[in-house]
Design goal:
296 residues; alpha/beta; seven-stranded parallel β-sheet; two-stranded parallel ribbon; 10 helices; 14% strand
Length: 296
């Protein structure tokens, strides 16, 4: 993959303190980005990670505490980055969190919070970036979605709904602005080795006031499923972004499942029913306090 598409460019990455967001930031810098604006609501974790990258890439990293659920934070971040950097070439609207749980246990408030973060946060960044990119007639807006937004995902009613909205928005914009120099990509991962498998649990415990020590102890009981290494995922994602692909689906298991959903519904129905059963068993075991593997 040529570095030219990313070299000397200015980028914003939200949710940049961990997981995909941190990976995006590191990869952009390694490919020669002139400036990466790293944003996250967790100022401490963001500062720690940004400091490491600042040591490796002096003068090319800026850390900004921003909550993707707050419109003013996101719009202010985009305006500042564009103003101080003389423009904006990329925004990775990545901030978000998972939610896998029985729908009868899902509160309206939880659903609304997830919409504000996973969808509204992406929308804030997308529209703000579009406004600063249009006058220059160039830029690339990259939105993190999920394979759960492409096809039904049992026990992920709220999460999949928000990601489906992100996918629809991104696809609409890709066609609407196809005549311009602005490009749009949605990224839909299947299972990638990040902290996503314990992120929901950690957030629920944090909101309940649990100590960091207890959160880590409890999260350690969750065994992640087999997953694609993050570096491998990033290789694929950045190659597809450089091709200006609108739909970036990874890995092969995700592409196969989506193709099956579109072309062989009986086979997909069988697979989805088995996934629902495994997730039901997971929750029953988790309630008993057992160490269990998260069903992918």
């Amino acid at each position: 993959m040529s570095n030219e598409y990313f070299k000397d460019k200015t980028a914003i990455v939200t949710g940049a303190a961990s997981g995909f967001g941190l990976g995006f930031s590191q990869r952009l810098l390694s490919l020669g980005a002139r400036k990466v604006w790293m944003a996250d609501f967790d100022a401490q974790k963001l500062g720690e990670q940004a400091d490491k990258l600042k040591a490796l890439y002096p003068g090319r990293v800026e850390a900004v505490r921003a909550n993707a659920m707050a419109r003013a934070d996101v719009e202010g971040l985009v305006e500042r980055a564009a103003r101080e950097s003389g423009g904006l070439d990329f925004i990775f609207n990545n901030a978000g969190r998972p939610m896998t749980k029985p729908s009868e246990e899902l509160s309206v408030e939880e659903f609304e919070d997830l919409i504000r973060l996973n969808y509204m946060g992406v929308m804030y960044g997308t529209l703000a970036a579009l406004k600063v990119m249009l006058p220059r007639n160039r830029g690339h807006i990259v939105n993190t979605a999920s394979c759960g937004g492409l096809m039904p995902a049992p026990y992920q009613t709220a999460y999949a709904s928000t990601k489906a909205a992100v996918i629809a928005m991104t696809r609409c914009l890709a066609y609407e602005y196809a005549h311009t120099g602005i490009h749009f990509s949605q990224i839909s991962p299947m299972n990638v080795a990040t902290n996503i498998f314990t992120a929901q649990l950690r957030e629920e415990l944090r909101r309940a006031g649990e100590s960091k020590e207890n959160i880590e102890k409890t999260a350690a009981k969750i065994i992640a499923p087999d997953a694609m290494p993050l570096d491998e995922a990033l290789d694929y994602i950045f190659a597809e972004i450089a091709k200006q692909a609108a739909d970036i689906i990874l890995g092969q298991d995700g592409r196969d499942a989506y193709r099956q959903f579109c072309e062989d519904r009986p086979a997909f129905d069988k697979w989805a029913a088995a996934l629902a059963a495994s997730r039901r068993a997971f929750y029953e075991a988790a309630k008993r306090g057992e160490d269990v593997q998260f069903p992918g």
